[in-house]
C-alpha cells in the first residue's frame, strides 16, 4: 500500500448586549472519563470585562468553527480515518457607518478554555507516536497538522493568521477531553483581539467542537478498528492488519485531508464507507458523532436522528452520487437555497455555506453560525456570542433580538424607529453599524430583507 505524505494531502451565557440595545430591548471511547455535553461558557462574572459590552466599542469580533463539528479517531494504532484537527475562523469588524472587516494593525489570538494538552488525554498520544507512519511527518507533542499552512503547526493556544479579510487557525489538535478529565465534544475557544499597542479591543467565545464518537463497535465489536482491518484483508486480499496503523485515506482519497481524487483504490473514502454500510442497518449517528454528541444541533434544522438525510441524502444516495460523478465529497454539499427559496443571497453559487460571504463581506457563518450549528442551537456555547452582542440567541442583527418576529415591524418601519431621522432607537444592527447611510435601499439589507417571518421562539434568522 502506498502511503501519502501529509504535505500532499492537499450560558447559557450572560446577556452582555450593547448598552443601547439593552435599553431598547427591555462511540468507542479511548478511556472512560467523566462525560458532559454542557458548554464551558464563561460565567457572567467572567464576561463583564468583555470590551464589546458597550456601544462605544470600536471593534467587534465574530468567530466560529468551520464545520460545526470535527471528528477524530478514538485511537491511532489501527484503522485511522481522521487526525485531531480543528479550524477556527474570525472576522474583526471595525464598527462604523458603514462598518468593515479589517485585519491590519490587529493581532488575534485563541485559546481553548480549560484545555492545554492533547497528547496526555486517553490514547490520543498515539497520534504523535505514529504520526510519521500515518502522515509522513513528525511534530512536537500537542502540535497539529495544517492543511492550509503546512509550516505553521498550531497548539491549543496561539496566534491566528491574517488571511485577507479574516483570521484563521487551522489544524488545532483538539480532543474532547479537558484538563479535568471530562469528556465534552463541545469545547470552547476564547478569541482575543489586540491593537498595535497591545490593548485588548475585542473578545468573544465560540464553540470549538470535536468528537471521537465514531462508534464502529455496533457492528465490529469491542476491538472495532482492528476488526475493520481484518475484515478488509479477508474481503480484498490486503495486508492492512499486518502493517497497522493504517490511514484509510492512503488508498481511498479523502478531500477532508486534501486529496483531489479518489486515490489508488479508485474509490473515495466517503463512497466506500457509505456504500458498504447502506444495506447493513447503520445510521448517520453511528459514525458521524453521535448518540451522545448529536453534532447537528441547530434548532431549526435538526431532529432526534440529526435530520442528516434531509440535506445530504441517505447513505445509498451519497455513495451513488459520488460513483456517478455528480458529487465530490466535501466539495459538493447541500445548498441552503434548496429549502430557503426566494431569498436574495441564499444561493451562494459554487461556494459552500462554510466558505460563502454575504452582507458587508461577512462570512455567512459570522452572523448565522457554523454549519450544523446555526443559531439558535441547543448548546449554550453556540449561542453565547449572539447573546454577548445583542442579548438574545438569534442570528446577528436579527430583528428578533428585540421583536417577537425576525422581521420586526417590517422594512418600512425601520427608518422611522431606528435611525437619526426617526426615533433613533438602537437595534441589533448596531452590533456593527454606528449609523446608516441609506436605509431606504432595501437591496443593501442582509438578504434584501426577503427572509420569511418567524416567531421569536426558535427561528434562526
Q: From the alpha-carbon coordinates, what is the Rg to the nearest angstrom?
A: 23 Å
What low-confidence regions span 5 or more consecutive residues with pLDDT below 50? 1-31, 43-54
Number of strands: 14
Terminal Cα span: 49 Å
Main sheet, how many strands, which sense, barrel? 5 strands, antiparallel
Series of secondary-structure elements, N-terminal to C-terminal = HEHEEEEEEHHEEEEEEHHEHHHHHHH
Q: Tell me the helix content.
A: 10-25%
Give the mean pLDDT. 87
% residues in beta strands = 15-25%
Q: What is the overall number of helices?
A: 13
Which class of secondary structure composition applies to the elements?
Answer: alpha+beta
Shape: globular
Structural account:
- This protein has 461 residues and is an alpha+beta fold.
- The chain has a domain at 28-211.
- Helix content is 19%, strand content 15%.
- It has helices at 19-25, 44-47, 126-129, 131-135, 217-220, 224-236, 269-277, 284-287, 308-312, 315-323, 364-368, 380-390, 411-418, and strands at residues 34-35, 59-65, 70-71, 79-80, 86-94, 100-102, 106-112, 157-159, 161-163, 166-172, 182-183, 186-195, 200-211, 246-247.
- Helix 7 packs across helix 10.
Please outline the helices and strands:
Elements (H helix, E strand, L loop, with lengths): L18 H7 L8 E2 L8 H4 L11 E7 L4 E2 L7 E2 L5 E9 L5 E3 L3 E7 L13 H4 L1 H5 L21 E3 L1 E3 L2 E7 L9 E2 L2 E10 L4 E12 L5 H4 L3 H13 L9 E2 L21 H9 L6 H4 L20 H5 L2 H9 L40 H5 L11 H11 L20 H8 L43
Parallel strand pairs: 1-11, 3-13, 4-14
Antiparallel strand pairs: 2-5, 5-6, 5-10, 7-8, 7-12, 9-10, 12-13
Helix pairs in contact: 7-10
